[in-house]
Amino acid sequence: MLRTIKFMLFVVVAITITSCEDDFLETTPTDAISAADALASAENMSLIIDGLHRGLYAQSQTIFPGGDSQRAGNHYWLPLGDNIAGGVIHSAPANNLGWQDETRWTSHTQETELTPELLWYHRYNIIGSANAIINRVAEGDLPMDGNLNAVTGQAYTYRAYAYLSLVQHYARGYLIGTPSSDPGVPLVFDSDPPFESAPRSTVQEVYDQIELDIDTAIGFFEDATPRSTGSAAAKSQLNIDVAYGLKARIALAQGDWATAADAAVQARQDYPLMDETDWKSGFNTTLLPEVIWGSNVITTETTFFRSYFYLICNTFNGSQNRNNPKLVDRRLYNQIPDTDYRQDVFLADAPNTNTSASNGNGGFAKNTNPLYPTEEDFNAAADSLQGVYGWTNGHNAHPYMQVKFLQQNPGSTDPDDIIYMRSSEMYLIEAEAKAMQNDIPGAQAALSPLGVARDTSYVATAFNTQEALMEHIKFQRGVELYGEGFLYTDKIRWDEGIDHAANGGSGASQTLYQDGFQQDRPSINDAWIFKIPQREIDANPNLGPADQN
């Protein structure tokens, strides 16, 4: 299969042992670590798991040969879901890393582009290392204690996570296709080169494996040493709550509504909803009480202009942000009640200081906001926002810009943590699952804790039909999970296209967005499916040109 997978285990072990296990390094050079040593004990296998944690956010060329410095794992993959699907609006030309190519749909639709190639490689490298642990434990000669159960549970969870990511990007959506016959992705179980795979399994077969893996993970976690608490780093470790959260996502994607609701409730038990202060604090640390799982990004291994906050945060000191403040879709913003404090993180009345703005209204000379009748008023408003949020003199402001994501050190190039799973998402999964079962009281009860926590006037019973509930759930997911990467899979599940011109417009520019300005719904538009990397088709004897999406 992929020529890069065979190197993943050794590279990761070398990196993690170098940084975490100096004593081991003294007797075993990093360029001579064998698979046998790496898999000899739970302690050593935990270093492979730590390498997978780091691999979620490291620049890909530092983790496996064939990577590229323009992608840093989930720093890029997580916000990609909102970028492709049009949830986070670009306000001006400001390209780097191909980020605006994603909005234009000229990247994932090309088999030679970095995005489909590196996402494929990254996820299969996770699978390769997870397989090594799973297969070693299956040999049965290691003592099964709490630590080994924790390591094994994490390996199975990582494999489920990687296969879910692959099948949701490189295959037709489960609910809009024919899973029993739609081509999915190759299943790989080898832990030694040459990592032969079968041809593409069906979507159903891939989901069957994902379900088996996540249930197996939960079984191991039930007898595992609990994950430590009290530190941001601890949230990087996968545990039974993460596994239940993934189980909820897996079931939701398949329309297994009862399982989705039950697993979501299990996942969120120990993660109380944030209050207003925490919710407005910037989403920059996994220490927030709602966070079930996230990457604690080590600042000494910063990705600088490859980080999540470079791509999403309007205080980050990079050209992608200074020249191109990211906005909320105006149609979404206009639905937020004044009593909902989440409205405050979208600055509808920010002055447009960017003379390069795509709407052509940048600068005071083109100002139409009556709040700023004079240039002095206009500049004072811009200066005030800079003082509040800490961006630099070089940053531009723009109406509807978001300040949901704020750096701990605003105006710098410091990275911050990446949040993957929160209890809010679990409430929304339960609500959607109940609504899809036409359990109106159940959906209202699931929505109520989240709605009341965010909106002082919230009344869940106002949404009293399945249609009204689903529209409200879509709104709640849009506001609550803005910028957290869910919109791509949401639109596929809901079979909704992209139309930035509809219903008054999103605020996006058709000239800037090009093909991404309008896209038909996924059930009739295979452009939603990522291309399989050409390098994979060339290298894998089980795949040929006819297998291309």
How would you describe the overall organization of this protein?
The chain is mainly α. Among the domains are: 265 residues, Alpha Horseshoe (Serine Threonine Protein Phosphatase 5, Tetratricopeptide repeat); 77 residues, no CATH class. It is built from 22 helices and 10 strands. The protein has a two-stranded antiparallel sheet. The chain has a two-stranded antiparallel sheet with strand order 2-3. The chain has a two-stranded antiparallel sheet with strand order 4-8. Helix 1 crosses helix 4, helix 1 crosses helix 7 and helix 17 packs antiparallel against helix 18. The longest helix is centred in the N-terminal third of the chain and has 25 residues. The two termini are 18 Å apart.
Summarize the topology.
Blueprint: H1 5-20, H2 22-27, H3 35-38, H4 42-55, H5 74-85, E1 88-90, H6 99-103, H7 114-138, H8 146-169, E2 183-186, E3 200-202, H9 203-221, H10 240-254, H11 257-267, H12 276-279, E4 291-295, H13 308-312, H14 319-322, E5 326-328, H15 330-333, E6 346-347, H16 375-389, E7 401-402, E8 418-422, H17 423-436, H18 440-454, H19 466-480, H20 487-494, E9 498-499, H21 510-513, E10 518-519, H22 534-539
Antiparallel strand pairs: 1-5, 2-3, 4-8, 6-7, 9-10
Strand order of the largest sheet: 1-5
Measured distance between first and last alpha carbons: 18 Å
Average pLDDT taken over every residue: 91
Give the percentage of residues in beta strands: 5-15%
Helix count, DSSP H or I runs of 4 or more residues: 22
Specify the CATH class of the domain at 5-83 and 103-270 and 530-547: Mainly Alpha
